[in-house]
From TrEMBL:
Name of the protein in question: 16S rRNA (Cytosine967-C5)-methyltransferase
Binding of S-adenosyl-L-methionine, residues: 297-303, 322, 346, 363
Spans traversing the lipid bilayer: none
This protein's UniProt keywords: Methyltransferase, RNA-binding, S-adenosyl-L-methionine, Transferase
PROSITE patterns noted in UniProt: NOL1_NOP2_SUN (PS01153), SAM_MT_RSMB_NOP (PS51686)
Disordered as annotated region, ranges: 1-33
Name of one Pfam family that matches: Methyltr_RsmB-F
Biased composition (Basic residues): 12-25
UniProt-listed PANTHER family: NOP2 YEAST -RELATED NOL1/NOP2/FMU SUN DOMAIN-CONTAINING, RIBOSOMAL RNA SMALL SUBUNIT METHYLTRANSFERASE B-RELATED
Entry-linked SUPFAM superfamilies: NusB-like (SSF48013), S-adenosyl-L-methionine-dependent methyltransferases (SSF53335)
Protein purpose: May act as RNA methyltransferase.
One MF annotation (Gene Ontology) recorded for this entry: RNA binding
Length: 489
């Protein structure tokens, strides 16, 4: 039974709270709860200035020298709250006497943080409520604190499953809506997953569940510098199941940037799915020259570093193109010492001559729906209207890649999204326009199970433990490209 110690009375539906008031009384001692304070500040930055939680939080932790258990708690609370926002908001609204749009922004941040602890952590209910209310009181005074207290007490009356039963769409009438609600995904994203999986049942449930869990950190060992076995021994991680260069660290194992092999640039953080897609490009059989590779959308450079290390072992070179100057700088940094030339340019309008490259990677800008585990607030920020703009750019970049690769050369088209418009839709249309040959990409993912009917590869967190990366490998035919090839879309 919920413990309402700290002298609180039985929870009841909140009455209309007082308007925000400036504190006028004697100043209160600062709240000694560094983990929840940085969580709250990060959630505020996400709400107020569209910040990225996974950039703001690590910086705050460093600035305040928060480490160990406090850092782990702050990370769990911040990312968990940001991920579950839609579900939390529905419960908060059901417990409040007003629509969320009328709730003070900082009260809403605190309510989300408190509701997350109540519904999705083992923090005792009284501690979740009291610690959240204390933070609000210290910052905003007792009027808003009273409102937050009252709402959280109502939230605490039921567990997550009971709230889902009460508030989620009926599973018989709207199975996708029901799963979306209970796994804290916007409906349109759950629908996109359902279409890619061909399922509104168990596979969709497993995919959403995996997408809602905290992901393990994956490292990639730099080829020629260290093996995956050595890297695993150095970091205490496990050798990855599919990538010969991959190592998995335990979820929440601390900041991987602090690990010696990462500091020494023997390894970098990279999802195993990304490693496999970059490797698929290198594994496609090729006749003739094979020493000039192109990465057409290179920033921040994870795949460029892996490709450059591999082509460098054979005496070749990688050309990396990136449109955003600051991201091109990141590519320069991560690939320094490797045979790479970085160009700041639009990949659709480079100066390269037609057919200049043997292999080309198009790791195209995308919705990122396949990496929602790693970008906690992204699912609530992305809009269905983003898809159309991106697919146009994806078409144009893939078409240009097929022009820049030599006849007989190969292009890997990769997106971190399972959305069919960004994946099969783009590839099918470009293949139709250009006459490019579609390779059975599954053969370029040796040892990886559950790759479906092909010819393209769609990875999934629940099947492969990777981000939901899509990869299609195409070959430029020896004859001229289709007449529409240079028209784009
Ligand atoms: C999915 S990210 C690439 C990730 C990268 N390959 C890696 O593994 O680190 C897509 C990149 O394409 C860049 N980009 C967007 N539009 C572009 C364009 N027209 N030409 C070249 N790069 C572009 C974005 O700035 C972004 O850095």
């Amino acid at each position: 039974m919920t413990d309402y110690s700290r002298g609180a009375s039985k929870p009841s539906r909140p009455r209309r709270p007082h308007p925000p008031r400036r504190r006028t009384g004697p100043s209160r001692p600062p709240v000694e709860d560094p983990a929840r304070l940085v969580a709250l500040e990060t959630l505020r930055a996400v709400r107020q200035r569209d910040a990225y939680a996974n950039l703001v939080l690590p910086q705050l932790l460093r600035d305040r020298r928060i480490t160990g258990r406090d850092a782990a708690l702050a990370t769990e609370l911040t990312y968990g709250t940001a991920r579950a926002r839609g579900l939390l908001d529905a419960v908060i609204e059901a417990c409040s006497d007003r629509p969320l749009s009328e709730v003070d922004g900082s009260a809403l941040d605190a309510l989300r943080l408190g509701a997350y602890q109540l519904l999705r952590t083992r923090v005792p209910a009284h501690a979740a409520v009291a610690s959240t209310v204390d933070l609000v009181r210290a910052e905003r005074g007792s009027g808003i604190a009273g409102f937050v207290n009252a709402v959280l007490r109502r939230v605490a009356e039921q567990d997550e499953a009971a709230w889902v039963d009460e508030l989620a769409p009926d599973p018989d009438n709207d199975p996708v809506g029901n799963l979306a609600f209970s796994h804290a995904h916007p409906r349109w994203i759950a629908q996109a997953f359902a279409e890619a999986l061909g399922s509104r049942g168990e596979p969709l449930k497993l995919a959403l569940e995996a997408d809602d869990a905290r992901p393990a950190v994956h490292l990639v060992a730099r080829p020629g510098e260290v093996t995956a076995d050595e890297l695993a021994a150095m970091t205490g991680g496990d050798v990855a199941p599919y990538s010969p260069y991959g190592v998995h660290l335990e979820a929440g194992a601390g900041d991987p940037g602090d690990l010696e092999p990462v500091r020494e640039r023997l390894a970098t953080v990279q999802d195993e799915g990304s490693q496999l897609c970059a490797l698929a490009l290198t594994r496609a059989p090729l006749e003739g020259t094979d020493d000039r590779w192109l990465d057409l959308c290179a920033g921040p450079g994870g795949k460029a570093a892996l490709l450059a290390a591999l082509v460098g072992l054979e005496g070749g070179e990688l050309i990396a193109v990136e449109k955003a100057p600051h991201r091109a700088e990141l590519v320069r940094k991560i690939t320094s010492g490797l045979p790479v030339t970085v160009h700041v340019a639009d990949g659709r309008e480079t100066d390269f001559v037609e057919g200049a490259f043997d292999r080309v990677l198009v790791d195209a800008p995308c919705t990122g729906l396949g990496a929602l585990r790693r970008r906690p607030e992204a699912r609530w920020r992305r809009q269905p209207t983003d898809v159309g703009t991106l697919t146009k750019l994806q078409h144009e970049l893939l078409t240009e890649a097929l022009r820049l690769v030599r006849p007989g050369g190969v292009v890997a088209y990769v997106v971190c999204s399972p959305h069919l418009s960004e994946t099969v839709g783009v590839v099918t249309d470009v293949v139709r326009r250009t006459g490019a040959e579609v390779l059975d990409t599954r053969e370029l993912f040796p040892g990886v199970p559950d790759l479906g009917e092909g010819p393209h590869v769609q990875l999934w967190p629940h099947l492969h433990g990777t981000d939901a990366m899509f990869c299609a490998v195409l070959r430029r035919p020896a004859r001229a490209l289709g007449k529409d090839a240079s028209d784009g879309v």
